[in-house]
Structures are given as C-alpha cells and as structure tokens.
User: What shape does this take?
Amino acid sequence: MLEMRPDCERCGTDLPPSAGGAFICSFECTFCADCAEALDERCPNCGGELLDRPTRAKALLDKFPVSAVRKFKG
Assistant: This one.
C-alpha cells in the first residue's frame, strides 16, 4: 500500500491524498506537479521516472490513513 506522503519534497506544497497533482517514483519520493515538471519528471533522489500518484478514496482514509511525516526540509 502506498505511504501517500503529505507534501512535496522539493517545495513543501500540501498534497492531499484524495486530490490529483502528486507525482511519485518507485520509492514513493513525492513531488507536486510544478516540481515534477521542473525536474523533467525524473526523481532527483534515485533518477527514476515520476508518475501520477493515484488518489485514495475519501471513504477509505479512516481505514487506511496516509502518512503524517513531512519530507520537505526547506
């Protein structure tokens, strides 16, 4: 199951789990659409491809909560 990180690692933008606009690599590094575009859709951590992160239905968020750990260090 995806960790569903709550923010962009590069700029800190909030990325709600039930909204689009988040991009992830195979290690779940997470970026907003603007940062993914600026990075040419390549993860700066592993070099992997950044792809659209799927959303999580609101009805499932209580049963399967998302991560609260923020990765932005800015």
